[in-house]
Amino acid sequence: MFKATGAFSGFSVNDTKKAQEFYSNILGIDARDTGMGLQLTLPGGSDVFAYPKPNHVPATFTILNFKVDDIDKAVDELTQAGVKFERYEGMPQDEKGIMRGRAHQIGPDIAWFKDPAGNILSILQQ
What is the mean pLDDT of each run of 10 residues along the chain (126 residues)? Predict the structure, then answer.
């Protein structure tokens, strides 16, 4: 039977330098250049690998979800840092771009944004 000794996820970016600056300086994540890409150490200790891809196409789905204790505060802080939150037609999002899922009984409060490569990320409060 197959027996893995570990696992990690990965996604592509078109510019590892811009990605490293964003993940380190804006999101506060340890983003180490390995020479082949970036090793991102996420809150909780898991690793994700961001690799350069010349013909990169941004993911059309959320690749990383960051849990927060206070989504309003997190949105405000990220907005001040220059992050723009996405708007999706048909989603009950407020003026900040937060979908208030808890109030509508459809899941967590969540807001989506993109990294410099156009990959979709989110912050959420359960």
Answer: 91 98 97 97 94 96 96 97 95 93 88 98 95
